[in-house]
Design a protein that fits this description.
Layout lengths: L2 H20 L7 H12 L2 H21 L21 H12 L2
């Protein structure tokens, strides 16, 4: 495997993980595609300068977003467990571990 191929694979995997983390869509977006092509036309130094500017601008935006609490998930899906005998469920699960 060439270094170029490995770098492309790493970048693709990294971009995919990033997309998942921030909830980006894979829906085609002409503005994004146009901006991406423009950025690719820049030299490495100008690309890094642009990244630094974007990070600085977006850091402030992210700080202004309300924080979420794990406690917001409390009770989510509780209806799924209605009518389930906990001891019986655990017995079946544990017995499945042994094959």
């Amino acid at each position: 495997m060439s270094h170029t191929h490995a770098a492309v694979r790493w970048r693709s995997g990294h971009e995919e993980r990033y997309r998942v983390v921030i909830g980006m869509s894979d829906t085609p977006n002409q503005g994004y595609d146009r901006a991406r092509r423009s950025v690719q036309a820049l030299g490495p130094a100008d690309q890094l300068r642009l990244i630094a500017e974007l990070v600085g601008r977006l850091s402030g935006e992210l700080d202004r977003q309300p924080r979420r609490s794990l406690l917001e998930l409390q009770g989510l899906g509780k209806g799924i467990w209605q009518g389930i005998d906990v001891d019986e469920y655990l017995r079946r699960e544990r017995s499945s571990w042994n094959g």
